[in-house]
Write a structure and sequence with these properties.
Oligomer: heterodimer
Strand content of chain A: under 5%
Largest interface: A-B, 70 and 64 residues
Distance between the termini of chain A: 56 Å
Number of strands of chain B: 0
Structural class of chain A: mainly alpha
Number of helices of chain A: 22
Helix content of chain A: over 70%
Structural class of chain B: mainly alpha
Helix content of chain B: over 70%
Number of helices of chain B: 4
Largest sheet of chain A: none
Shape of chain A: globular
Order of helices and strands of chain B: HHHH
Distance between the termini of chain B: 24 Å
Radius of gyration of chain A: 22 Å
Largest sheet of chain B: none
Chain lengths: 439, 164
């Protein structure tokens, strides 16, 4: 007796097998590759499945659009090593000086700008963990709140352009990177504003957590504010260089990385050893991310073959659920995935199935790119594996991890408020790309 | 990390880092020459693609040697140290097998490009040059994964290399 499974059933088994392999500690890239190749073979035979691996590998080896990723990572790696974070924090502190909660708000402002250049939420949190937490604690801020502010503000790195994660989404979804960056601007700054609002709420509810710090004199403030120029210039080149038509995204990344090196050497903040380390970090981080992209390419070929995305979209349509309910289910799914998966894997694994559903309920891939990126920011501070929380705890072992999670709660509420805003007013995402006609 | 593993991983990283530097420099040179002298470098895109292939595939052995593949290590909190070590060795074995399939198929495709003398459109760079770092990187990664199966220094530990 023989029986055959439907394509959808094979797809479901493939997804379950993928999750089982990931939980069994198989590297995510290999788990994606193995389940993708085996699933493809189950549907189309081993011959086509194995031949597909050669085609896909070469596709990755000659994809110019991917070159933006290592160059943006390099820019961030150089900026991290060239002491730009401390000067930026002092500049932002000068800006907010005299207002209660100034140090926490300076942390948010500087994480937003530094994170946008750095592109890595973990590196941003690690950097500001040593720059701003000691400063906040010295002025009597509650340690858990200080750590929570840095952990949460660090996540702005994945949302505010130029973000490496959005570049990965752009490749996975085949959407325009300039358009995605333009779309991410407003939500990114709204989230930063919500974080500032969250600080003020804490000032109001728990004033003892945020003692008043004497304001700086005007001269002192002006002097400190000058520290913003380095990252400001990099941000201008990397982002506005694209929209002014000067550069393509890859060129913008290359020019900004080169400028970061020049600034680093010119200001003597960078030496050859630090530069070597920045290049090595770039090479290894790029390889780890690209290996996942390669695995995800195999897996998505398999998922497409199952016709599962279309079947799920048809099922969603037949279920006649409201778009809000579907988005709520998707949001919950991402929160769950975010508790154990890193952001790059989370996006690449779910894209083949999610994009048709999103199209079915009337949202477009650009909107979804921003939505899913915001969901990633939530995953970065959610227990049990909020990566930015662990990074901070490693540097401040006297603050228990549970207390840091408590410190992030108010910022988590801000994240959820942004999600609600995006669902209720999807036009927030399209406003800037439409205003400037970004394609 | 064992000394030889560290040295081999760093060698892999340095070669890839040189490719990243090359990618950045050619991109900047193209932008500057285009803006200042209206004289862009012909075939920049093809050179960047070649450097990109080098930067990814030649750093891959280093990722295996440094044990920096991105993993979900929740099981580490529940499982014994020995179980984690066994899982790590099994992961390396599965990785080596998967990469062997990629190398095998890559080798066949590379031979095709050689036989048909495939070249790029702008600079006529033989496509086989693009396959070289791919094949070298995959072969190096297989060796690295095999080394990790037998390396007595492989122990438990969490990794988040590459997370953004």
């Amino acid at each position: 007796m023989s029986f055959t499974l439907s394509h959808g059933a094979v797809g479901l088994i493939g997804i379950i097998a993928l999750l089982a392999l990931i939980f069994a500690r198989l590297p995510i890239a290999i788990a994606l590759g193995v389940s993708g190749i085996a699933g493809y073979a189950a549907l189309d035979g081993w011959g086509p499945a194995i031949r597909m691996t050669g085609t896909v590998t070469f596709q990755l080896a000659s994809a110019y659009s991917l070159s933006v990723i290592p160059l943006f990572i390099l820019m961030g790696a150089v900026a991290s090593r060239a002491n730009m974070a401390k000067e930026l924090f002092e500049a932002c502190n000068a800006l907010f000086s005299g207002i209660r909660g100034a140090l926490a708000n300076a942390t948010i402002g500087s994480c937003a700008l530094f994170g946008s250049i750095c592109g890595s939420s973990i590196a941003t949190a690690a950097t500001f963990s040593s720059v701003s937490i000691p400063e906040m604690r010295r002025h009597g801020y509650d340690p858990a709140f200080s750590a929570g502010a840095v952990a949460s503000a660090g996540t702005l790195a994945v949302l505010i352009p130029p973000s490496v994660l959005i570049a990965v989404y752009s490749i996975g979804s085949e959407q325009s990177l300039p358009k995605l960056y333009a779309a991410a601007f407003l939500p990114g700054f709204i989230l930063a504003a919500f974080y500032v609002l969250a600080v003020w709420i804490i000032v109001w509810l728990r004033p003892q957590w945020v003692p008043n710090v004497p304001g700086m004199a005007l001269g002192e403030r002006l002097k400190a504010a000058r520290g913003i120029w380095k990252l400001g210039l990099l941000f201008f080149l990397a982002v506005f260089g694209i929209y002014l038509g000067w550069f393509s995204p890859t060129e913008a990344a290359g020019v900004a990385a080169f400028t970061a090196i020049i600034i680093g050497f010119a200001t003597r903040a960078l030496d050859w050893r630090k530069l070597r380390d920045a290049f090595l970090e770039t090479a290894f981080t790029t390889a780890a991310i690209f290996f996942i992209i390669l695995g995800a390419f195999f897996f998505s070929r398999f998922i497409v073959l199952t016709r599962m995305p279309n079947d799920v979209a048809v099922w969603v349509n037949a279920a006649q659920l409201s778009p809000t309910i579907i988005l709520l289910i998707i949001a919950i799914l991402y929160i769950v995935l975010g508790t154990f998966l890193d952001e790059v894997s989370m996006i690449l694994i779910t894209l083949p199935v999610m994009l048709p559903i999103i199209a079915q309920i009337g949202y477009d891939p650009i909107w979804f790119g921003i939505f899913v990126t915001v969901m990633c920011t939530i995953g970065l501070i959610s227990p049990p594996t909020g990566m930015t929380v662990f990074v901070i705890q490693a540097q401040h072992p006297d603050i228990p991890v549970q207390r840091i999670y408590l410190g992030t709660l108010i910022f988590l509420a801000a994240d959820l408020a942004l999600v609600a805003l995006l669902v209720a007013f999807p036009g927030i995402v399209h406003w800037l790309p439409n205003l400037f006609g970004v394609k | 990390m064992a000394g030889w593993r560290n040295r081999a991983a760093m060698a892999s990283g340095y070669i890839a880092a040189i490719a990243v530097a090359g990618m950045m420099l050619i991109t900047v040179a193209d932008v500057v020459l285009r803006a200042v002298f209206n004289f862009p470098i012909r075939g920049t895109l093809e050179i960047v693609e070649l450097m990109l292939a080098c930067s990814f595939f030649l750093a891959l052995p280093g990722i295996f040697l440094r044990d920096e593949n991105i993993v979900v290590d929740l099981i580490d909190q529940k499982a014994s140290s020995n179980t984690v070590t066994v899982l790590k060795r099994l992961s390396a074995l599965v990785g080596a097998l998967m990469l062997a399939v990629l190398l095998w198929q890559g080798w066949i495709s590379a031979q095709d490009t050689l036989v048909f003398n495939d070249v790029t459109a702008d600079l006529s760079i033989p496509r086989i040059y693009y396959w070289m770092p791919v094949l070298a990187g995959l072969a190096g990664s297989i060796l690295a994964a095999i080394a990790m199966i037998f390396d007595p220094h492989v122990k438990r530990g969490s990794h988040s290399g590459g997370a953004v």
